Each structure stands twice: as C-alpha cells, then as structure tokens.
C-alpha cells in the first residue's frame, strides 16, 4: 500500500506538473516496500539518487512556470526547492552504504510529509497565477533538457 497516495486535491491544474508530482509520489512510495533484508540499502540509495535527479528536473520546470506566470513568491518557492535539494544531498552522504529498513521508514515519513506540505500548501499558492496566465504559461511547462544548464545553477545540478 502506498504511504503517500496521489489524490486530485494535489492537482495544480497543469498536466505536466501534475504528472511530475505523480512521479515524485511513485518514487517516494518505493520506500514503503522496503523490508528487512539486503534490498533496504539498495532501495534507499536508488530512491535518493532518483529523487535527486527527478526533483531537479521538476523544480526547474516549476520555477520556469512560476516566473512565466508572474508568481510574486517565486524566490521563496525556489528557496524551498533549494532546501529540499540540500537535505536530499545531505541524506545521500549520511546514508551512503548504511541504509537500513528503519532509515527507510524515517526517510519515507520525512518525504511524505514534505511532499504533501509542499504540494498542498506551497504549490497551491501559485495556481491562481497559472489560471491567469494559462495561455502564456503553458509553454513554460514543456519538458526540459537537463543537459542545458541554463535552467539552474551548477550547485543545483549537482544534487
């Protein structure tokens, strides 16, 4: 059973962003399947690595969209993204090679809480601006080329 199930209350009304959020939910929910055994370390490391890469992709897309639609709190929102990226980077360093099912549960709890708060509170704050800029904002939600470093600074690309 998913620890962090997707529901329509999490929809920000932009199919590309909703798809990204569903993917983040699926990545996080992989931790709910960790049992006691050798797979715990591998699963936790894989989830952290995948989450770091996918969050980078999603955050760049979301930030581009917020700027395009004139969301006045986009810098604060980006700071939230940066804090998350830094936290995941720190967890990857701290847990490297010694993840256990208990750490997987701790990580699952943290990620579930963070994602729910971030989508339901932080992301919902920009939805009125998206509705107002629907025609001009949609192209900003197009897929990104992660090889193009113009979508974020070098520090964030290292996440």
Structure in a nutshell:
The chain has helices spanning 15-29, 39-68, 74-95, 101-122, 127-132, 134-137, 154-157. With 159 residues, it is an all-alpha fold.
How would you describe the overall organization of this protein?
The protein has 159 residues and is mainly alpha-helical. Helices cover 65% and strands 0% of the residues. The chain has helices at 15-29, 39-68, 74-95, 101-122, 127-132, 134-137, 154-157. Helix 1 (15-29) runs antiparallel to helix 2. The longest helix has 30 residues, at 39-68. The protein starts with 14 loop residues before the first helix and ends with a helix. Mean pLDDT is 81; it is low at 149-159.
Q: Residue ranges: pLDDT <50 for 5 or more in a row?
A: 149-159
Helix content: 55-70%
How far from one another are the termini? 29 Å
Overall shape = elongated
Summed up, the helix count is 7
**Biggest sheet layout:** none
Let me know the average pLDDT: 81
Please describe the structure with a list of short key phrases separated by commas or semicolons.
159 residues, mainly alpha
List the helices and strands and how they pair.
Elements: H1 15-29, H2 39-68, H3 74-95, H4 101-122, H5 127-132, H6 134-137, H7 154-157
Helix pairs in contact: 1-2, 1-4, 2-3, 2-4
């Amino acid at each position: 059973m998913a620890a962090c199930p997707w529901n329509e209350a999490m929809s920000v009304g932009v199919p590309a962003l909703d798809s990204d959020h569903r993917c983040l939910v699926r990545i996080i929910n992989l931790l709910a399947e960790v049992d006691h055994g050798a797979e715990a370390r591998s699963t936790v490391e894989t989830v952290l690595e995948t989450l770091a890469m996918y969050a980078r992709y999603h955050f760049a897309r979301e930030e581009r969209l917020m700027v395009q639609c004139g969301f006045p709190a986009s810098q604060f929102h980006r700071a939230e993204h940066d804090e998350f990226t830094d936290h995941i980077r720190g967890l990857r360093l701290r847990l490297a090679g010694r993840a256990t099912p208990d750490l997987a549960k701790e990580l699952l709890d943290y990620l579930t809480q963070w994602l729910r708060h971030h989508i339901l509170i932080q992301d919902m704050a920009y939805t009125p601006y998206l509705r107002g800029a629907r025609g001009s904002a949609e192209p900003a939600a197009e897929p990104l080329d992660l090889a193009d470093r113009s979508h974020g600074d070098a520090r964030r690309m290292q996440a």
